[in-house]
Amino acid sequence: MSTPLKELFRQASEAIAVELRPMLRLALPLVFAELGWMAMGVVDTVMAGHAGRQMLGAVALGHGLYYTFAVFGIGVILGLDTLISQAYGRGDMADCRRSLAAGLVTSVLVAPPLIGLVWMMGPVMDFFGIDPALRDGTQGYLRAVSWGTLPLMLYATFRRYLQSQNVVRPVMFALVSANVVNLFGNWVLIFGNLGMPAMGAAGSGYATSVARLYMAGVLMGVTVARDGWAGWTAWPGWDRVRQVVKLGLPVGGQISFEVGVFSLVTTMLGALGPVALGGHQIVFNVVSVTYMIPLGISSAVAVRVGQAVGRRDEGGARRAGWVGIGLGAGFMTLAGVVLWTAPRMVAGLYTADAEVVETAAACLVIAAFFQLFDGIQAVATGALRGLGDTRTPMVAHGICYLVVGLPLGWWLTYPQGWGARGFWAGLSLALILIGIWLLSAWRRKIERVSEWN
User: Fold this and answer.
1) pLDDT tens digits along 341-382
2) Is residue 13 assigned to a domain?
3) Within a domain: residue 11?
4) Is 292 found in the same domain as 428?
5) H or E element in which residue 33 lies
6) Phi-psi region of 388 (alpha: psi -120 to 50; beta: other; left: phi over 0)
7) Domain check: are 107 and 165 in the same one?
8) What pLDDT digit, counting tens, does each position of 142-155 carry?
9) Helix (H, G, I), strand (E, B), or coil: what is residue 436?
10) Is 413 part of any domain?
11) 319-322-328 Cα angle (round to 5)
12) Which of 4, 99, 291, 366 is the most buried (most CB within 10 A)?
């Protein structure tokens, strides 16, 4: 082994030895929290499925539409990762609480417009020719679930405050236990058990809203138990609210690009028939599950890097970013190998329809190629957020999806006749480019840490 390689290996080994354990201690509960977040949508869908196809369609469509707006609101709050973790790193707890207060104010300001947009989805569904019965059920779900928007954003705010101080087990507990609350609420309100009226799709929406109120209550309770009421219940000042929004808006934009692109692809593939759409939905679900792991690691990396920045620890920030990126890339490489070698087995877990399995398997092989880069971009996004850069990921996602991924996917799907594989090929190339872009951005910015001083 050459001397430069030996030195690189030595540095990597030292970084792993120092950083791996605290990174995993922070990341693992957040990974379970992300899986718990995803499970809430699954619970709604499964419970609605037992009430019939019409109910299932209404809840599935409503969940997809609502999620598009909800993730933007949550994204705006993610700017707190930078502010609170850096303040905690430099030992300024008063500033941590001020940012928490600013996050709460931001939530109160952002939630009402999002609720208004959700309530306006009725005419949009009419424009796209949604069946009236399906539209009515979907609109009932949307209006019911919209009442959970503010609690959801308050939960996100308390979560950022706690996890930026390495308090993550309550976050995991809140989300995992919220699934039990949601399951019970669905059972009562969809079917009319325990003397309640059977509310159908709307009942599922109300159950989810109650579960999100529960999540916010749990984390607020933890915050009060740890810190009391002082500091974070005081007015933070408009300058701090503007800081939160300035950092968070690009994150909301970036997430909206991702969700919007996949929603648009799903809608466009609907014209190709149930086989193409079914295969696409299987692949989308599979890659969403694998993505939850690097997403949890990304949150931990944002905290670890931000704390290191706050205490002016250049080596700590570098170690946290690279070890986290290595963890995300390592897991997603394994996921890619599974999708490449056993695509039919994975697709067969979802359906026995041979045509759908074949369509999904062909797309899963393509998706295997971007797993590594998806892991890299997810964690690099968190690392950049820890440094205070939320704009670069938004620009990368916007350009790569809208200029490369979607046009190429459309061309391969329709003129070239690739079917669902065409869009997945386009999305794969976009994610590969995003991964390379953000990895390069992280490498460039972390090499400039000497400018902190």
Assistant:
1) 999 999 888 778 888 889 989 999 999 999 999 999 999 999
2) no
3) no
4) yes
5) helix 3-49
6) left
7) yes
8) 999 999 999 999 99
9) helix
10) yes
11) 130
12) 99
